[in-house]
Amino acid sequence: MSPNGNWLARSRPAPLTLPESPLILKPLGRVPKRVGSCKERFEVPPVSERRVKERYGILGEELQEHCIDIEVVKDKVKAFEVEVPSWLFGRFGGGRFGDYMPPAPAPDANAKIRDAAFVHSLTGAAPRVAIHVGWDKPQGVAFDDVEADQFAELRTYARGQGIDIGAVNPTLFLDGTHLGSLSSPMEEVRRRLIRHCVVSCEVAEKYGRGLVTYWLPDGTNYPGQADLWGQERRVREAFREIYETASDQVRHLIEYKVFEPGTYSTVISSAGIARDIAASLGDRAGVLVDMGHHPWGVNVAQIVAHLIGEGIPGGFHFNSRYAADDDHAVEPNRSMYAIFCELVEADVVTNRDPARNWAYMVDQCSALENRIRAVLHTIDSLQVSLAKALVLDRERLGAMRAENNIIGANRVFLDAFLTDVRPIVRTARLERNLPLDPVEEYDASGYQQKIERERRA
Ligand SMILES: [Mn+2]
Questions:
Q1: C-alpha 399 – ligand 1 centre gap (Å)
Q2: Cα(351) to centroid of ligand 1, in Å?
Q3: How far is CA 373 from the centre of its chain?
Q4: Closest CA to 261 of 317, 220, 215
Q5: Is the pLDDT at 39 greater than 70, yes or no?
Q6: Can you tell me the distance from the alpha carbon of 364 to that of 102, in angstroms, rounded to the nearest whole number?
Q7: What does DSSP assign to residue 320?
Q8: What pLDDT, on the 0 to 100 scale, is given for residue 412?
Q9: Quick one: CA torsion of 336, 443, 132, 366, rounded to 10 degrees?
Q10: pLDDT, averaged across the chain
């Protein structure tokens, strides 16, 4: 303390007076003023047919300058199909939030089908539902008593609702699999699950579209816990038996995941291991890429390019991830755009020859949000991502690459990403008599209120 009292206060500089400037000292939160005779919020329709047509016309002219025919882009968006998962509509997930479940989960397989059919009626893009054999089996049938023909009724029901059964998933993470499923050290566990997989293949052949997708929970929590190659060897032997027992009409996609539930090791932890196992089986086996199953920062578009280049059959489980296996709805972000650029480039999406296309499925089941609204948002985001990839000026990109113009190539690439392609997606809907915005339409439809009433009982 100085003898003159509070030196600190006296040494403090005089308050700075700043000139009035439009650039600084604006109070936070100021937004552009509402102008003219604009309507109250919520009175404005989110999108109008007239605006869509106007913007479609302008965008068409712009794309013409890049020698891209907007009609071709629109037709490809119309042709895009993706499967929705039955488990999205049911009681799956939610553990991290106690018992919370978004209202009105589907109580049984038929109710899941009805929800999936409603999603298809709003989008025209989800004509099949992927099923989990262990969950979607008829009520009252024990896991070990599941037989393929029990799914005839479900398929008939689905067709009556206007959709079909898509990919078939054996359920390899229920009771008895805490030490692994196909890698289990216990012979009886492996036998039981190999049988379950073979039944799943039969379901796929007779009542699905001949596609089986496998996710194994197999791994370890600690180093030393298991013989790592021993685990993989048992998985390979099991897959070999399943592949050889199943009809040759069945295709198999093997899903990988870097971690979870095992935190130290996972038997099928990478695209490389899944690819090696698939290649060891034959040309009807391939790799299933799930967005949320990668280490943070992995370039999924590059994995896709590699699998396509190697001629490995491929499939997608679409979702968004921020941290781990979030199972959130897809956003039309830069990473999804880059992936679709690879798929479009290789012509494995909306190819007229269905055998050339990869298998496109959604795998999302977030605990908090309304799941029907979330999957509608996903389908919208996938259509937008596809359209963006289709408006990429590949010729110009090729020229930039030829000149080794790094920034130029990136700017051409981003130019398509930054293009608002929603007029294309919406025109595709208009021409099919589908709602312009499926999420808005869902909210207006009363379906949610209806299932909440029905399923409360
Ligand atoms: Mn998945």
A1: 38
A2: 24
A3: 14
A4: 220
A5: no
A6: 14
A7: B
A8: 98
A9: 60
A10: 91
Phi-psi region of 350 (alpha: psi -120 to 50; beta: other; left: phi over 0): left
Q: Which amino acid is at 411?
A: R
User: What is the CA(181)–ligand 1 centre distance, in A?
Assistant: 16
Ligand 1 centre and the CA of 269: distance in Å? 13
Tokens 């390019």 -> residue: 305
* C-alpha 436 to ligand 1 mean position (Å): 29
Residues 87 and 116 sit within 8 Å (Cβ to Cβ): no
Report, in this order, helix, strand and coil percent for the chain, each rounded to 5: 50, 10, 40
**Residue keyed to tokens 């003898």:** 3
* Distance from Cα 370 to the centre of ligand 1, integer Å: 19
* Identity of the residue numbered 308: I
Q: Are 296 and 285 in contact (CB under 8 A)?
A: no
Give me ligand 1 centre to Cα 212, in Å. 12
pLDDT tens-digit series, residues 352-382: 999 999 999 999 988 888 999 999 999 999 9
Q: What φ, ψ does residue 36 adopt, rounded to 5°? A: 50, -135
- Under a CB-based contact definition with an 8 Å cutoff, are residues 445 and 123 in contact? no
Q: Over the stretch 113-149, which tens digit does the pLDDT of each residue have?
A: 999 999 999 999 999 999 999 999 988 999 999 999 9
Residue 8 corresponds to which amino acid? L
Q: Measured in Å, how far apart are the chain's first and last C-alpha atoms?
A: 76
Read off the pLDDT band of 98 (50, 70, 90): low
CA 392 to ligand 1 center in whole angstroms? 29
Tell me what pLDDT residue 325 has.
82
Whole-number Å distance, alpha carbon 60 to ligand 1 midpoint, is 37
CB atoms near residue 238 (< 10 Å)? 21
The helix or strand, by DSSP H or E, that contains position 380, with its residue range, turns out to be helix 371-390
Residue with tokens 């991290």, as numbered in its chain: 96
Give residue 324's region: left, alpha or beta (phi > 0; psi -120 to 50). Answer: beta
Segment 272-295 mean pLDDT: 97
pLDDT, residue 5, reads 45
> How remote is the CA of residue 293 from the centroid of ligand 1, in Å?
8
Question: Cis (ω within 30 of 0) for the bond into 261?
Answer: yes
Tokens at 155, concatenated: 């398929």
